[in-house]
Design brief:
This protein is of the alpha/beta class. It has 19 helices and 24 strands. The strands form four sheets. The protein has an eight-stranded antiparallel beta sheet with strand order 3-2-4-1-10-9-11-14, covered by helices on one side. The longest helix has 23 residues. Bound molecules: 6-O-phosphono-alpha-D-glucopyranose (G6P).
């Protein structure tokens, strides 16, 4: 939620800040702003709406200066408006702040500041920070020390970037519970919420840890802990290219990311199951037989799409490894008083590695002695750093808000993990593993085949774009794929859509079926297909339009469903990763037909760093 950037150096800050915000717009996009120090004063431009509005404003009112901060917002406190946009300034225009996160005790601090005579013009919690720093600064503390004092008062999760009128060469970054990366340049330094904002300028980055404050000048970066002790941090060299964070000719990031899936699934699989190797390579992930013998319960916890990938893992681990697995969305797990001890393994799944609820679930588990294995995409993210073990999925930066390639890689990771656990606990023979492994290797080219026929989904989206309600139905693993398919349609096409276990349809939702309803039946689990066919007949009899996703060669389903999208044949347990691709394409083309903002759907943000 919210993207922040900062620059200090010799070059003009405005274009660097805007360029950075452009790469971070996926984090929030209801308003944007920059503050630039011109050597004398801090000047601010900010506006409601997309970054393009800010760019217009900057063209009409050019700012100059070599120090600045910028922000793209996903509103929490106060509706999106010019005045609530960041940066926020102290009343005397001495301190300017951009903020990602929530200050939980801001009302209390605000009351104190009001009493001291401060005036507030916005409804945000952030304005309180600007005034609070200003208050300590007026009391005689240096800019740095005023920030330390103010930060020690703040409760909540936040990342901040701050400048001061009287310090034209100093940029301060603060992190607690929201991501912040520092980019090291030559004679210039940078701050950003995420790496893509830095890649045009540097590949050398430091990840700030919670409760750390960094002071940047053009030639120095000093990281302090909360007690102002200097912290030595290793530099991290980013290996992926800027192209990975650009559209490369595709109309949308989402379409580009859908098309990256063959490559990403291939890389995720080959890294862990090398072609000429003997088995599964988990590197430092400690999950051998002895460790697994000490585990009697597994939780799979995540949010959104990552949760649906987690559900596939739960299903497979239980079915194949015969270990009880409980799955729960992280926002519920936090408050359900879960049974956790040293015999529990918590598997958290997260693309960004920064989702607040998932991170908190991880912390609760660790506090209670459980082991945490994180399946994460973003290298160096909070979840990756705090987990006991990390399984990186290597999907590269995912920019579109709706997750696609991360899901496929997460599901591939679940296949590998399941096989590893099953082999270790003796629930899978080497022969069984080899059969799965050989089939795993074929998945990337099978995804490729589905993508080559994307015209099918495009035409179906055109045909069904006027439906009012969509139900995704399925049984077993197909039901789990339905849930992700339904979420995609909600997220980007803003269509009312629900996923239902096919057998549950009769227990209520069938009452809603009429001729404005589309039922998408996922029918890739062949042993369950007869029953799903019956469900398709039931909804058709009540006027619904029907579409099915089934494995090639299944002609029976074509006799009942209005339309069938065929996927290449594979083992039932591996079908989810294939069956989900048509869902992604269908959602994409539905959204395209309906004219929504595909990469930045309304009200959403890619990285949800608030509860
Ligand atoms: C947000 C995003 C989703 C994502 C979910 C979990 O809701 O819009 O696409 O699945 O967060 O994010 P994570 O980064 O933890 O996978």
């Amino acid at each position: 939620m919210c993207g922040i950037v900062g620059y200090v150096g010799k070059n003009q800050a405005p274009s660097i800040l805007i360029d950075g915000l452009n790469k971070l717009e996926y984090r929030g996009y209801d308003s944007a702003g920059i503050a630039v120090h011109d050597g004398q004063n801090i000047n601010i431009l900010k506006t409601k709406g997309r970054l393009s509005n800010l760019i217009k404003l900057v063209i009409e009112n050019p700012l100059t200066g070599t120090l600045g901060i910028g922000h793209t917002r996903w509103a929490t406190h106060g509706a999106p408006s010019d005045v609530n946009s960041h940066p926020h300034m102290s009343e005397d225009h001495v301190i300017a702040v951009v903020h990602n996160g929530i200050i939980e005790n801001y009302m209390e601090i605000k009351a104190e500041l009001l009493e001291k005579g401060y005036h507030f013009i916005s409804e945000t919690d952030t304005e309180t920070i600007a005034h609070l720093i200003d208050c300590y600064y007026r009391d005689g503390f240096s800019f740095e020390d005023a920030v330390f004092k103010a930060v020690s008062r703040l409760e909540g999760a936040y990342a901040l970037s701050i400048i001061c009128r009287d310090c034209p060469g100093t940029l301060i970054a603060v992190r607690k519970g929201a991501p912040l990366v520092i980019g090291k340049g030559e004679g210039e330094n940078f701050i950003a919420s995420d790496i893509p904002a830095l890649l045009n300028y540097t590949r050398e980055v430091y990840f700030l840890e919670d409760n750390e404050i960094a002071v940047l000048t053009e030639n120095s970066i000093t990281i302090y802990d909360k007690d102002k002790n200097v912290v030595n941090r290793d530099i991290y060299h980013v290996t992926w290219d800027i192209e990975a964070a650009e559209k490369s000719g595709y109309a949308h990031f989402m379409l580009k990311e859908i098309h990256e899936q063959p490559k990403i699934v291939r890389e995720t699989i080959l890294k862990r199951v090398p072609e000429n190797g003997d088995g599964i390579v988990l590197d430092n992930i400690k999950l051998d037989k002895q460790e697994l013998d000490n585990i009697d319960r597994i939780y799979v916890v995540a949010c959104g799409t990552a949760y649906y990938a987690g559900l596939i893992g739960k299903h497979l681990i239980e079915k194949i490894c015969r270990i009880p697995v409980i799955s729960e969305v992280a926002s519920e797990f936090r408050y359900m008083d879960p049974i956790l001890d040293e015999r529990t393994l918590l598997i958290v799944v997260s693309q960004s590695g920064e989702t607040a609820d998932t991170l908190e679930a991880l912390r609760i588990a660790k506090r209670n002695g459980a082991r945490v294995l994180a399946i994460v995409n973003a290298v160096g993210s909070s979840i990756a750093r705090e987990a006991d073990d990390v399984f990186y999925i290597l999907a590269g930066p995912e920019i579109a808000v709706a997750s696609t390639k991360a899901y496929s890689a997460q599901v591939a990771a679940m296949y590998i993990l399941t096989c590893h656990i099953a082999l270790a606990v003796g629930k899978m023979t080497e022969e069984e593993f080899k059969a799965i492994r050989d089939e795993l290797y074929t998945l990337p080219s099978k995804i490729e085949l589905i993508l080559q026929k994307e015209n099918v989904e495009k035409k179906l989206a055109e045909k069904y774009k006027d439906v009012r309600n969509v139900f995704f139905i399925g049984r077993g693993l197909d039901y789990l794929v339905s849930q992700e398919g339904s979420l995609k349609l909600k997220e980007i096409a803003y269509l009312h859509s629900e996923a239902y276990a096919a057998g549950e349809l009769k227990h209520g939702p069938i009452a809603m079926i009429d001729e404005n309803t589309l039922v998408v039946a996922i029918a890739a689990q062949e042993e369950l297909i007869e029953k799903t066919i019956n469900n398709i007949k039931e909804v058709k009899a009540r006027g619904a339009k029907t579409m099915a996703i089934a494995m090639k060669g299944n002609t029976k389903i074509a006799e009942v469903a209005d339309d069938v999208i065929y996927i290449p044949r594979t083992m039932g347990i591996l079908a989810p990763v294939l069956a989900n691709i048509p869902n992604q394409l269908f959602a994409y083309y539905m959204a395209l037909s309906l004219g929504t903002d595909i990469d930045k759907p309304r009200n959403l943000a890619k990285s949800v760093t608030v509860e």
